[in-house]
Amino acid sequence: MRVVLSAICGAIIGLERERRYKNAGLRTHIIVAIAGAILMIVSKYGFIDIASIPDIRLTSDSGRIAAGVIQSIGFLGAGVIYIRKESVMGLTTAAGLWATVGIGLAFGAGMYVLGISTTAIIMLVHLLLRIHHQKMPTQTVGVITCNLSEHGMTVDNLVYHFKEVGATLRDFSYTRNPDVGVIIKANVVFSDKRSIIEHVEIMKNFEFIDSFEVYP
What we know:
A hairpin with a 2-residue loop joins β1 and β2. 58% of the residues lie in helices and 19% in strands. It contains nine helices and six strands, in the order ααααββααβααββαβ. The radius of gyration is 26 Å and the shape is elongated.
């Protein structure tokens, strides 16, 4: 019963993650929840037969295995965290795995109300935050590189051109090369409703841009 409930709650959380194309999906969350429940059950009841032997004095610490589970899940969480374009991705999925093993431990300990209520709270948080993000203005971010010397541009000109299309330049990096001149690299943020394809077309029309990358 405890393992089954763990699997169901893990599946609920994992299904939401899989529908959003996250690295850790349905199967991962189910396995993590089941593992947490089984290890907690073993931690609580796995040594009862030994403790009942008269000649053996056994001091049992039912929280030791649970503590080891919490520590070991960190390795799995680290596997889903990665860096893309100077942004850290996968933190929510890693935190979800950590919470899922906690739910499994709760069911394994017989705390059914705690396990079910925690699952409900996690799903509610995902739902509310998704609605919040959908209402926020859409932003598309990119990286541009421009040789100011070659194109006869200044930073003010660069900022002006992007402002005209509803974009903001941030985080400038400046390089002076005796052979090729002054090179500017900057992050560009589009805060309008255009699609990524439209942003790419805008960048292509800027002849002074030597290279660019656009990503959501």
